[in-house]
Amino acid sequence: MKSVNIKKFLPVIVPIITALIVLLSLNLLLPKAQPKLKFSADNTKQNYKETIHFVAVGDSLTEGVGDETGDGGYVPIVANELKEHYDLSTVQNENFGVAGERSDQILKRIKKNDDLQTSLASADLISITVGGNDLMQSFQKKINAKKSSAFNGAIKKYDNNIQDIMDEIRELNKEAPIYIVGIYNPYYLNFSNIKIMQEVVDNWNESTKEIIADNQNTFFIPVNDLLYKGYKTANSDSEDNSVKNNLLSDDDSFHPNNTGYHIMAEAISQEMVKSHNLWLLKENE
Fold first, then answer.
1. pTM for the complete prediction?
2. What Cα–Cα distance (Å) separates residue 266 from each residue in 19, 162, 223, 248?
3. pLDDT tens-place string over residues 111-127
4. DSSP H helical segments within 30-131, as ranges?
C-alpha cells in the first residue's frame, strides 16, 4: 500500500480547520439573541401583582343561591379563571352576597357594615349583582300593568340607588374597577307571550347601562341574552309552557344552576380581562 503524502493537502486542510475554530469560538463567546416577543411577555408579567383581592357584593346571585354544588356561584369561578389566566399566586375572594336584598338594602349595608367597608377599601376589583329583587317587587306592585312605561318610576328609583352605591364605594376606594351585572328574565320560556315582562327587563338594563357609562372605571355586564332562553337543545323551540330553562335551578326556576353560574362567570371574567390594566398592574407602574 502506498503512503499518503499529508503535506500535499496541508494548504487546503489548515484554512478549513482555522475557520471552524473561529466559528466555534464566536458561538461560545457571543451572547445569544433572545426572541423579542418572549422578552416582551416576560417583562409585562413582571409588572403584574402576584396576589389579587376580589370583593363581590350583592344579592342571591352573589351568594350563589341555586348552585347545586354549594361552591358559591360565580364568585369562586371568576377567581379561579383569573388566577389561571394570569398565573397568579392567589386571588383572595370575599363574598358579601345576601339573598333577597334590593338595591336600597345593599346600599344600606355598604354604608353601615364595617367589615364590608374594610374589604371594599382594599379591593383590587369589585363585582355587584343587584336589581332582581327590585324588579320582582315592582312586578308585584304593578301586576296588572299593561304597558312597560308603568315601571319607569321604579327604574328611576333603582337608578338613583345604583348611583348612590357607586358613590359610596368610591368614597372607600377610588381606583378599583366596579363590574355591575345586569338582570335577566327567568320567566321568558314559560311566559314568552307576556311581552311587557321582557320589555321591562330590557328597559331596566338599558337604564342601568346608561348610569354606569357616566362613571369612571365602571362596567356593565349583560347576562339576559345568555340566560333567559336557556341552553338551546332539540326542544328549545317547543311552545309548551311547561318547558324549563336548563340554566336555572330545578328548585325555584329563578336562580342560575351551576351551569348558569359558569356562563355568568365567563361573561364577568371576559370583561375583567379586557380591563386588566386597571387592577392587575403593580402600583406606580
1. 0.81
2. 59, 23, 10, 16
3. 999 999 999 999 999 99
4. 36-46, 60-63, 74-85, 103-112, 114-122
